[in-house]
Amino acid sequence: MEYAENRIRQLSRRYYNQGLDRAKVRDLSGAAEKLRICLHLDKTFTDARNLLGLIYMETGETVAALQEWIISSNLKTVGNPASEYIRRVREHQRELQ
Q1: Is 35:15 a contact under the CB 8 Å cutoff?
Q2: CA 49 from centre of chain
Q3: 0.85 exceeded by pTM
Q4: Mean pLDDT of 42-59
Q5: How many CB atoms lie within 10 A of CB 82?
Q6: pLDDT tier at 74 (50, 70, 90 boundaries)?
Q7: Which among 51, 44, 58, 57 is positioned nearest to 90, based on CA atoms?
Q8: Tens of pLDDT, residues 6-18
Q9: ∠68-25-72 over CA atoms, to 5°?
């Protein structure tokens, strides 16, 4: 069982890295696709959730971004940038509308 779990984490990390690479070259739809696969494999991967949230914000999907960041901040309560992202969105609600 432990072997399978490690293999799934490795595969999840690979999809995260592919998503990160695509995000760096501004292929946001490709990055989001890879990150969704990553999260399907490992729902607790907070870095992937945070990056997917940033991509959602960039593409105007504020509600989806907040969903990812809220889940992320609940999974990792200390030292998680998702809390700051949520705070910024709340501060700038009127501008987003």
Answers
A1: yes
A2: 2
A3: yes
A4: 97
A5: 25
A6: very high
A7: 57
A8: 999 999 999 999 9
A9: 15
* Residue 68 reports pLDDT greater than 90: yes
**Contact in structure between 48 and 26 (CB atoms under 8 Å):** no
Q: Which two tokens stand for residue 92?
A: 């700038």
Q: Which two tokens stand for residue 45?
A: 């991967």
37: tokens are 């696969």
| Gap between the Cα atoms of 27 and 70, Å rounded | 24
Do the beta carbons of residue 49 and residue 36 sit within 8 Å? no
DSSP letters spanning 4-40:
HHHHHHHHHHHHHHHHHHHHHTT-HHHHHHHHHHHHH
* Sequence-ordered list of residues with C-beta below 8 angstroms from that of 70, at least 6 positions apart, any chain: 82, 86
Reading the block at residue 22, the tokens are 């695509």
pLDDT (average), residues 59-64: 95
